[in-house]
Amino acid sequence: MLKNIALGLLVVVFLSACHFKKKASGDATKTMDTMIVKDVHTLSNADSVQMQHLELNIKVDMDKKQISGCAVWTINNQKNARQLVLDTYDLTIDSVTVDGKSVPYTLDAKIKFLGSALRIPITAGSKSVSICYKTGSDARALQWLDAQQTHDKKHPFLYTQSESIYARSWIPCADGPGIRFTYNAHVQVPKGLMALMSALNTQEVSADGNYDFEMNLPIPAYLMALAVGDITFKSIDDRTGVYAEPGMIEKSRYEFEDVGKMVNTAEQLYGPYRWGRYDVLVLPPGFPIGGMENPRLTFCTPTVIAGDRSLVSLIAHELAHSWSGNLVTNATWDDFWLNEGFTDYFERRIIEQMLGKSYSDMLWELGYQDLVDNVKELGDKSKDTWLKLDLKGRDPDDGLTDIPYEKGSHFLKLIENTVGRDRFDRFLVKYFDEHAFKTMTTEAFLTYMDTTLLKDDSESKKTLKINAWVYGPGIPPNCPRADQERFMRVDSERIKFLNDIPAAQLNVTDWTTHEWLQFLRKMPPALSVVQMKKLDDAFMFRTTGNSEIADLWFIMAVRANYTAPYPEMEQFLSTVGRRKFLEPLYGEMMKTPHGTEMAKRLYAKYRKNYHPLAQESLDKMIMKK
Prior knowledge:
The protein has 625 residues and is an alpha+beta fold.
C-alpha cells in the first residue's frame, strides 16, 4: 500500500531571476526558471487539482464532542487528474459526491503524523466535490472543554488549533501551507452559545444557534479556525475588538486597549492591513500556545492578561503575522522561519515604535538568551539549528523550537544593521506587496533578496555570511546583540542581593516583566531556601498574576526545594495549558525522584485540562518515565 500513497505535494514557485543557492554538503549554485518544492506533510494532490473554494456546512455537538457535516470543494482539475486526494485524520467519511453524483471512495491506511489519504475519482470536467463526514475522538485540532474547564464554569467550550497539520482532523482538505483557498461556512451550535471563525464574524449571539461566515481572501488550511462557547464582545475602535467569556471580558478589554494603535503602527511600518477587522479572542486556560494568528481573529491565551498590559508583545506578534505568515506564507514547514523569524522581527519593530528602543532591546536580549539555550539543548552542530529545516518523516511540530523564531529574527536584524534600516524597510514593504497572498520558500526569498536588496552590494553579502545562517548550525559569530543598558541596571541589583543587601532595599521601581525575567533568569542555578524566601517575602512572586514571572519562579522553587509556593504552583498547573510554561515546569520536577513523584501526581490530576497537543508532549515526558 505504501508505494501507492502520495508522499508529498509539489509546490511550484515561479521566479523571475532564480539563482538558487543551497548549502548541503558544500555550496551549489543552480539556475532555473521554475522551482519545484515537495511538501512532505500533505498526502493531497493539490499540485494537480486546484482547491479553489470551500463551502462548509457543519453542526457542533457539544455533548457528543463531535463535528459533523459536509465540506464542498470547488476544484479546477487543471491537469486532468483521475482522482482527488485529500488529507484526513481520524475522520469518518459518510458519503462523497462529485458534481452531485454519488461516487465510491477509498481511505488509505493511517500514516504516523499524516493521517489517511482520501481518494475520490474525478474526471477532467469535475467542478464540485462534496464530502460528508464526522470527526473522531482523536481529532488533534480540537479541544472540547466541559463547563468546569472554562473560566466562568457555566457552559462547555470548543476551540480549534489547526497549525501545523491538524486542520485535516476536522475538515477533509489539502492540508499544506502552500495551498490557499477561500471559504464560507454555515455552523450550527447549541442555542445560547456563540460561534466564531477566521472570517467575518458576528458580535452578538444568534438566537437560533446558526452562524454564517465568509472568508473571501485565500488562506491555507492551517489558518482555518473555529471557537464555540459562552462568548461576548467589546469594541476597541472601529476595526478592532476583543471576544472573551463574560467573566473575562472587562479584564481583556482593558489589557488590549492599545491594539488599535498597534494596527496603525504596523501599517506605518510595512503597508496596509489587508484583512478588514483585527479582533482578539481570549480562550479558556487550556490553550496550548501563546497565540494563533487566525486571520481577522487572533486566538490568544488568557496568560497574557496580567492586569498591567505588560505582556501585549504577544499580540504584536500575532498582529505581525497578518503580513508575515498570513499574507506571505511559508511554502512548506521546512521554511517555517519565513513565518516566525519575520514575525518576531516585525513584532519588535512595532514595540520599538510604540514603547521605545530601550524596551524593544529587552525583548531582543531575552530572545537571544532563548536562542542560546535552545542551541545548547539541540546541539550546536545539529541540523535542527539551521534556518532551513529538514522535517521529512517527522512531525512538523518538531520544528517549533526557538530556532525559526529567534535565529530567524536575528538574521533579519543583521540584515537591517548591514544595509541600513531605511533601505531594509523599503525592501520589506516591497516584499509584502509583491508577494501578497502567495507562498514563499527559503530559496525563493534568498533569490528575491539577492536581486532586489543586495544587487551589486558585494560588501553586504560578504558581511552577512548568508549560508552560515540559513544552511549552517548554531549561532553565527556575526549574530547581533541588543543594547544592554536597562539589563545592566537589573544585573547590578541582582549582584547586590547576592551580596546580602536586603531584597526590600533593591531599586526595582517601575520594572517591567522583562526586567524581572532578567533578574531571575541570571540568578545562580539553585538559590538557597533562605534566599528564595527573602525574595518571595519582598516581591510576592508566588502570588503574582504575571504568568511569565510565576512560571519561572515555580521552576526556581522546585530547583531549590523551596516548598512554600507549592500550593500556588498547583493552582497554576490546574489552570494554565500553555506548553511554554508546562513543559519547563514539569521538566524541572522530573529531574529528581521526589519531583518525579510530584509531577506524576499533578499531571494525572490536571491532564484533562490540557489541549491534546500539550498532552502529547507531556505524556512523553511524564507518563513514559
